[in-house]
Every structure is written in C-alpha cells, then in structure tokens.
Amino acid sequence: MAEKKKEPTYEDLSKIYTDEEIAESFVLRSTLSEDEKEEAHKEFLKFRMDRLKNMSESDIILSNLMRMKIQIQNYIEQNEYNPRFDFSNQLKEYLSITKRTQKDFSEEIDIHPAQLNRIIRGKENPNVDLLYRLEKHSEGLLKAKNLYRLHTMKLESEMVNDEESRLAQYDRVKQTLSLAKAS
User: Fold this and answer.
1) What is the mean pLDDT for each group of 10 consecutive residues in the chain (183 residues)?
2) If we measure between CA atoms, which residue out of 88, 103, 106 comes closest to residue 150?
3) CB burial of residue 154 (10 Å; 0-12, 13-18, 19+)
4) Which of 136, 126, 55 is nearest to 90 (CA)?
5) Under CATH, which architecture does the 57-162 domain have?
6) With 124 labelled, which of 64, 86, 152, 156 sits at a CA distance of 20 to 30 A?
7) What is the residue extent of each domain of the chain?
8) 142, 172, 173: which is closest to 72 by C-alpha?
C-alpha cells in the first residue's frame, strides 16, 4: 500500500522559498488550533469593524450601490418575479442609498418632480430615457438594461397572472383567424 505523502506546512516551505514565492504559489492548510482559529476570527472581525467605522460617506454609498447591483443581477438571473424588485421599489432604494430627496434627484436627472413621484409610487412606468439617466447618475453601476428588466419582469408576471383581463380582452375580439388545426 502506498504511503500517503504529508503536505508541507509553512514552516517547511519557508526553509526553501521566500514569503513572496509561497504567497504566489501555494494555498496552505491551516496549522492553527481551534483556540487560535477563534482568536484569528475575532481579530478579523475587529479589523473589519474598524474598517467599516472609518469608511467615508462616498465609500458607504459605493458599497451599498454595489450590493444593490449584485442583488438586482441575482434577481434577474433567478427569473422569478418578486415585488421587492419592482422598478419603483428599487428606485426608492437608490434614493435612500444616495441620500437624495425626490426634489433633488429630479433636478439632477432633469425629470419633472411630479413624474418622478408617479414612477416611485408605481403609477407611471419608467421610460428608456429615465433608465439611461439613472445609469449615468449611478456612474454606470446600475445598467439601463437591468433596470428595464426589472420593469418587464413585473409586466410579464401581471400578464401571466391576470386571467380576468385576458378574458375581457378576448371578448372584445370580433373575429379571429380561421387557421387549420394541426392533426
């Protein structure tokens, strides 16, 4: 039976390679005890909290917009409608993240405040021009194409689930095509 070869530890490798060579070439297994792992985890959390406390306002906004972007992308990939991701809800989230009032934001993207309010309340649909402006305002983080997809996913869900409207529109059709049925 073949003898299992022991993986080298950092101590073994440091006798042969420089730290830079080790870091660039290997993924090392941990030699930490459970107590050492717990202590390292605590140090990591402290470091992370210190970094968070020292973030600038701009860093916080960027971080939150990146989170929003990734959530939107994941939602689109799932291709299953969720009202949380309606365009109007995401626009509200965007204003909250960027700390903009509707009035200030409407001035920044050159849209009438009443129109913006109707869009935010879901009473009016966004147009392509607004999607382009929002893409530009976010410095390209929120792509117009993805924002449009948020809107179309809602429309698709409404179409699939609104049998009453479908039947009401069917009733308005006075004549249909006379097509041969496939046998």
Assistant:
1) 72 84 69 86 88 87 95 95 95 97 97 97 95 97 96 93 94 92 71
2) 88
3) buried
4) 126
5) Orthogonal Bundle (1.10)
6) 64
7) 57-162
8) 142
